[in-house]
Amino acid sequence: MTNHIDGSILTPDGWIAGRLDHDAKIVSVQGDAIAAPRPPYILPGFVDCHVHGGGGADMMEGAEAIRTAARLHARHGTTALCATSVTAPTGDIDAFLDDVAAVMADPATDGARVLGAHLEGPFINPDKLGAQPPFARPADAAQLKAWAARAPVLIMTLAPEMDEDGALLDALAAAGIRAQLGHSLCDYALARAALARGVGVTHLFNAMSALAHRNNGLCGAAFAHADYAEIIPDLVHVEPGAILAARHAIPNLYGVTDATGGAGMPDGTYRLGSLDVEKADGAMRLADGTLAGSALTMDQALRNLVGIGLPLDEAARRLSTIPADWLGLTDIGRLAPGARADIVVLDASLALSRVIAGGHDIPNPR
């Protein structure tokens, strides 16, 4: 059965006023080009490449926790995501990947589609853990290959100084896994060499050597040389001016939530891997005050980006099309015939009125 949605539609070529027809995929998009869209706004479903949990669940806790988080984020407009690990012992990462594979083998229609895994660590710098549990270790290409055999690994965050001979970067490239630099104290030269290989950057500004006018580090190298980089637009991890500066420097800057179990939940204590994290004042923190992931959802990320000055179409693309492009996926993150029917509909206040994932309406959009 073909369904119809009318409104201002964000297509790959810009806004049109018209109608979108879909079943499980988009059948047609028809209308007239417009310069100034009016509500309802019809956008591609959001694609979150970095999400640890939500709805009270941490994705390291098992398959049902992954499903719980995927349902929560779908209600906030995320239609596809990468389930993200934390730095942990080998056996815990094995179990996490087995759970990712199980969820992918039995997909639900009431949550965001799990595209695969993002391994954040464990090959990160033990002196730049941020809120990662203390299980960092040197790069091991053989271990990466074993993990990739358990479930689709789409992204790995690593510190390049933990990969002294470059063997891990070689293995990631050979496997088609997107490498991202993060949780690193590397210098500018090492970061530049890695970025020249086409790698990305994890949560720009956070847990990395700094942007500076002397003794520049990973962040400075990203400003000068990165093509793709994540940023967390909760306005806590990165202030508005820094987001706007990064937007000018990095062509394909895109938003992620880095959400933890506290996303969509009241203030309280939640888990992040083996750690307890506290939600208060819209942020997630360890007991010592260190930021520990976020409580962000993608609909709020959109409103935040528009609120600091990005046009709605650009903000939407930085939360959908660009992350899909980074993953090499052309069937999501855009409203075009043949793409999956992953769609969000927003009202004049940019509140969600409808979320469609793979042609299915998500219950109770927020």
Automatic annotation (TrEMBL):
Zn(2+) binds at E120, H183, H203. Belongs to the metallo-dependent hydrolases superfamily. NagA family. One of its GO terms (molecular function) is N-acetylglucosamine-6-phosphate deacetylase activity. One of its GO terms (biological process) is N-acetylglucosamine catabolic process. Substrate binds at A131, N206, A207, R214, H237, L291, A292, G293. The keyword Hydrolase applies. The keyword Hydrolase applies. It holds the Pfam family Amidohydro_1. Keywords: Carbohydrate metabolism, Hydrolase, Metal-binding. InterPro entries: Amidohydro-rel (IPR006680), GlcNAc_6-P_deAcase (IPR003764), Metal-dep_hydrolase_composite (IPR011059), Metal_Hydrolase (IPR032466). Residues 41-348 form the Amidohydrolase-related domain. Binds 1 divalent metal cation per subunit. Its cofactor is a divalent metal cation. It comes from the Bacteria. The active site is at D258 (proton donor/acceptor). This is N-acetylglucosamine 6-phosphate deacetylase.
